[in-house]
Amino acid sequence: MLLEQATNVRKEWSTVCDSVIHEKPKFIKRIRDKMWLSNLETISELLEAYYFTAIKYMEDDGSVTVSLNEIDLVENGKDEQEARLNLGKAILEYSFDYYSEYEMYSRSPNRKKHIPYIFKALIIDDPKKIGDMLQCQNGKN
Prior knowledge:
The protein is an alpha/beta fold. The chain has 2 domains: 3-38; 47-138, Double Stranded RNA Binding Domain (2-Layer Sandwich). Helix content is 47%, strand content 23%. It is built from 7 helices and 7 strands; from the N terminus they run βααββαβββααααβ. A 4-stranded mixed β-sheet has the order 6-5-4-7, with helices on one face. A 3-stranded mixed β-sheet has the order 1-2-3. β2 and β3 (33-37) form a beta hairpin. α4 (80-100) crosses α6 (115-124) and α4 (80-100) packs across α7 (127-133).
């Protein structure tokens, strides 16, 4: 693997950052630890393969409920647009919580698979955009 030593990266920090931003990611090794340094555009490209999908339910009162498939989140709104926005807000709020408690959440077997969705939401950082990008299928009540 193309691992650069952390000591060299530290000495050439500005040059390494410029290279990562304008050229390509770097693989870095510090003793036994291995890491990857990248710009957000590269991470966004990697996360393009991940979609937020939901099941949409029409309620008896005319409201709409959307249930996210990838993470156990459910939101309701007076119409689909409001339900999507509410779910976008919930996804982003959960993502902030997850990131602030990353050590715990990322090691939890039932939450570990949330990682790409968390980073996708954090990079987007806009509840409306997240809600608008939901791929919804109709569910049966």
